[in-house]
Design a protein that fits this description.
The chain is mainly β and 194 residues long. The protein has a six-stranded antiparallel barrel. Strand 7 and strand 8 form a beta hairpin. The two termini are 26 Å apart. 32% of the residues are buried.
């Protein structure tokens, strides 16, 4: 489990493709000092297992499903990614409960920028539409955010300057795809109501 509070922006150093698998190596000096083999790390909102630690570079195996369902299949050398270590019991809990099991991808339709104001308008994936509600939680590329407006085919999120600086959100452009995970509590509530 994660909280959606990004600890470090890592840089993809190398990707090695194998049959039904890809190995990604990410430079992350801060997190690399604090993790061990087998630990879970959220990479752009996708829970991956640390398979190797080489000084400041972490290695992760990505299965075929991960590569096809998330944006991690499009990673290239030099790309920046949001990183978060798994939640430690007894630690502070600032975001919302995030599993790291991305539902898929959403596309940025529009970015509205004003002084001290940034709004992303994103496509509303039909398979998770019922879990996305105004003022509810959403995880985008591993970042815990609050949903703004919701229409029949789009939803908005608003980014404060701190979030833009502490995550890869400032690098996003209209047309980019972002990993999305609906709020797990919304899933359980709707499941129990059925």
């Amino acid at each position: 489990m994660f909280t959606g509070i990004i600890e470090e922006i890592g840089t993809v150093e190398k990707i090695r493709k194998e049959k039904n698998l890809a190995v990604v190596m990410i430079k992350a000096p801060k997190i690399a000092r604090q993790v061990s083999l087998g630990e879970s790390v959220s990479v752009d909102g996708v829970c991956l297992t640390v398979t190797k630690v080489d000084k400041s570079v972490l290695s992760f195996d990505m299965m075929k499903e991960t590569l096809s369902v998330t944006t991690l299949g499009d990673l290239k050398k030099g790309v920046k990614v949001n990183l978060e270590r798994a939640l430690a019991l007894g630690g502070r809990f600032s975001g919302h409960l995030v599993t790291g099991h991305a539902d898929g991808k959403t596309k940025i339709c529009d970015i509205i920028q004003l002084k001290n104001y940034v709004e992303f308008q994103l496509t509303l994936p039909s398979e998770i539409k019922r879990y996305i509600v105004p003022k509810g939680s959403i995880c985008l590329d591993g970042v815990s955010l609050t949903v703004g407006n919701v229409s029949s085919d789009r939803f908005s999120i608003y980014l404060i300057p701190f979030t833009l600086n502490a995550t890869t959100m400032s690098l996003k452009k209209v047309g980019d795809f972002i990993n999305i995970e609906a709020d797990i509590l919304a899933r359980y509530i709707l499941k129990f109501k059925q």
